[in-house]
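quick q for whoever's on today - can somebody do inverse folding on this one?? i tried earlier but teh output was garbage lol. tokens:
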């Protein structure tokens, strides 16, 4: 199985302003071409192909072209972080770097309404602090390094490299999707007079090179991730965007190939790793409720004491990466009948065994929303929200495989990101949630957004 992750670095004017330091009208207008011409062509091509992609967007681009960045997001593509003004983190001190990331995430969220879950360094280079700062900010992945080609890995913190040798540091929670100059449109196509880079290769030549890289990945790398980096101002030229369309058609015609945003792929990798880890620890299927119950604080106010359960957590007691597995439950015919009665959804795929046998599912399946509803009940058994959650704010959710009568499911839950709200008594936790069946397959997964109380300042701890 090969996953193709198409990525577009929507640098617009920022790369000329910051990285190339050519802030005169004509160089800047080369960046403007990306916004004015390139993105629209790319969106039309992706729409025709029916594939979703990741756009790395500097805050400068989002502020300059908010309508275009919103259109990218509204078309179902991921918008991820790419610096404030396309600056390299190298040379920034940790406090400056943290602040640049915080502001860039805030600006992207203001423009698109969604919080980014990944980062690509505009310079394809990181400071010694970058990975820790990405982790702190609750991001899931980075895509800037080159230690592998088609196998994502956990980025490390604290590598020591001296004349005597190399001592690797510890693995972080950040999933690294490696990049390569070979799989980037810049060196092939970008013409620069100073310093000389001729670029301007023919689309057909580059198509041959990229196709050979993809074919090698598919033939030789199990579960490979093919990450391609392109730029609207470069790939947006007509013959080049047509070439990319041909390449996508070739990939789609190759059996065992799927397309994904980096964010979705990172979430899938994180869930798969957590399942493997739990299996190794022989913890499946027992519930992995936090071993040491959280310290429960006093009431939020004297007059409104919540009924706080023994396993409940306040916002401050969660950390990004915290993971739980719920108890299991077998899906029975009674579940299907009860849900059909409750909702009035008597679609024969749920209620007519003879009909259902003739479908690709081979028998009756549980209603998709019933799977989600049962997942909320399984999750409740962890007790995390009892008396500390204020509201379920929403979710994004994918149905990946049917849940059949007789299947036994549990729920895997991980804290994907957290953010404080303007109200100092509250915070929002984004959980990545997956319904996993007895074969370890993910049936449904997505993000649940929940608002929690924060612990009262100065409360007992
Ligand atoms: Zn860039």
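ok took a stab at it. sequence:
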């Amino acid at each position: 199985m090969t996953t193709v992750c198409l990525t577009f670095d929507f640098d617009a004017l920022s790369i000329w302003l910051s990285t190339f330091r050519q802030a005169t009208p004509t160089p800047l207008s080369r960046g403007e071409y990306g916004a004015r011409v390139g993105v629209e062509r790319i969106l039309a091509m992706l729409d025709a192909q029916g594939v979703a992609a990741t756009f790395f967007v500097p805050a400068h681009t989002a502020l300059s072209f908010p309508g275009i960045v919103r259109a990218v997001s509204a078309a179902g593509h991921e918008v991820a972080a790419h610096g404030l003004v396309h600056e390299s983190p190298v040379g920034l001190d940790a406090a400056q770097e943290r602040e640049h990331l915080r502001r860039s995430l805030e600006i992207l969220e203001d423009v698109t309404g969604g919080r980014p879950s990944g980062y690509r360094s505009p310079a394809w280079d990181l400071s010694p602090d970058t990975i820790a700062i990405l982790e702190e900010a609750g991001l899931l992945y980075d895509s800037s390094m080159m230690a592998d080609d088609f196998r994502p890995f956990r980025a490390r913190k604290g590598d020591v490299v001296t004349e005597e040798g190399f001592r690797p540091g510890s693995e972080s929670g950040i999933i690294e999707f490696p990049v390569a100059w070979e799989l980037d449109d810049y060196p092939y196509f970008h013409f620069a007079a100073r310093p000389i880079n001729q670029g301007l290769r023919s689309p057909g030549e580059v198509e041959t090179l990229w196709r050979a890289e993809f074919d090698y990945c598919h033939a030789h790398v199990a579960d490979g991730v093919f990450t391609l980096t392109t730029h609207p101002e470069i790939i947006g030229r007509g013959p080049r965007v047509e070439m990319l369309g041909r390449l996508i058609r070739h990939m789609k015609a190759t059996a065992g190939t799927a397309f994904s945003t980096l964010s979705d792929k990172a979430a899938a990798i994180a869930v798969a790793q957590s399942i493997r880890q739990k299996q190794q620890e022989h913890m499946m299927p027992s519930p992995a409720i936090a071993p040491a119950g959280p310290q429960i604080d006093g009431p939020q106010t004297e007059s409104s004491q919540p009924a706080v359960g023994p396993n409940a957590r306040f916002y401050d007691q969660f950390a990004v990466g915290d993971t739980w597995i719920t108890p299991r439950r077998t899906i029975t015919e009674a579940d299907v009948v009860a849900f059909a009665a409750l909702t009035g959804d008597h679609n024969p795929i749920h209620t007519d065994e003879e009909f259902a046998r003739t479908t690709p599912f081979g028998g009756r399946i549980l209603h998709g929303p019933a799977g989600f509803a049962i997942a909320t009940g399984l999750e409740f058994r962890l007790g995390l929200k009892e008396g500390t959650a204020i509201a379920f704010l929403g979710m994004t959710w994918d149905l990946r495989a049917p849940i059949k009568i007789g299947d036994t499911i549990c729920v895997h839950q991980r804290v994907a990101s957290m953010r404080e709200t303007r109200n100092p008594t509250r915070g929002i936790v984004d959980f990545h949630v997956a319904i996993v069946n007895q074969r370890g397959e993910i049936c449904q997964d997505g993000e649940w957004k929940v608002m929690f109380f924060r612990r009262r300042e100065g409360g007992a701890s």
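fwiw Residues 284-305 have pLDDT under 50 and may be disordered. also The longest strand covers residues 408-420. so keep that in mind when u check it
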